[in-house]
């Protein structure tokens, strides 16, 4: 593997899930791979899980880690080519990417959607620019449209907890008070399409994901109907794609509670975190035995380790 930007960079998803599970069993088996090598982690947005799980995974592989918050630890970065830099950004990505590429063997980047300009967000300019100018493998730590390390951790979690060969997995929209990106939902859908599952999406009308991410998954607008017989309920809020970045409905009745979970086939609840309690999902579901959110977060370490291992093997 060279870059890890989406599921399309993965040759064999089952093998990558198995590599994650193997790393979980023997975390230090590949410590020699990263010896005398460094990974740089650049955050344009907040992070808790991604930062600590990726650092942990990198260290398990023997890598040294440099982590920084762009714009506060380092200079604000201009992404547009050919502009007169007389605004707030002091440094151009051409130099910044090239410089970090000299210090680091791998660069991880987190840069969310602005939700202001659909075309710009879906063009993934930050990642294109870093890929062009860094000269080293780039890892997506959540971009405007995708969160593949999260999706891989989700696949690892489903593999660990599934009781049937081909479980029913329901991606459900949840209510929120502010507009959130589509990245986690897009990415989860894209990975589920590559997995041996029955995959269904449910959301209020107007929250359709971009067609390239929704694919041919059935979209059911009645949440109760969609949840029937589910083995995994994957909750996430996202803002509208068609009316880009907007909240179209409060949708408070879409919160997952015990009554909704009782429609499933003893289903598990999953969420990438952070989650706002009693807005998206009730305390009783999150604190109950069907919640996988902590297991899922813990698997972020093994997802990152599987990906970094593959990249190190191809350096
Ligand atoms: N990396 C996990 C999700 C990150 C982000 N959530 C958030 O921004 C939640 C913020 C809040 O609840 O205020 C998202 O939805 O893409
Ligand atoms: N799930 C996830 O990516 O968490 P952070 O945003 O805290 O990294």
Automatic annotation (TrEMBL):
Organism annotation: Ravibacter arvi
Domain Aspartate/ornithine carbamoyltransferase carbamoyl-P binding residue range list: 3-160
Gene name of this polypeptide: argF'
Top-level taxon of the source organism: Bacteria
Protein name (database record): N-succinylornithine carbamoyltransferase
Similarity section: Belongs to the aspartate/ornithine carbamoyltransferase superfamily. SOTCase family.
Keyword vocabulary terms for this entry: Amino-acid biosynthesis, Arginine biosynthesis, Transferase
Amino-acid positions noted as binding carbamoyl phosphate in the UniProt annotation, renumbered to this chain: 75, 110, 147-150, 272-273, 300
PANTHER family associated with the record: ORNITHINE CARBAMOYLTRANSFERASE, MITOCHONDRIAL, ORNITHINE TRANSCARBAMYLASE, MITOCHONDRIAL
EC number(s) reported in the record: 2.1.3.11
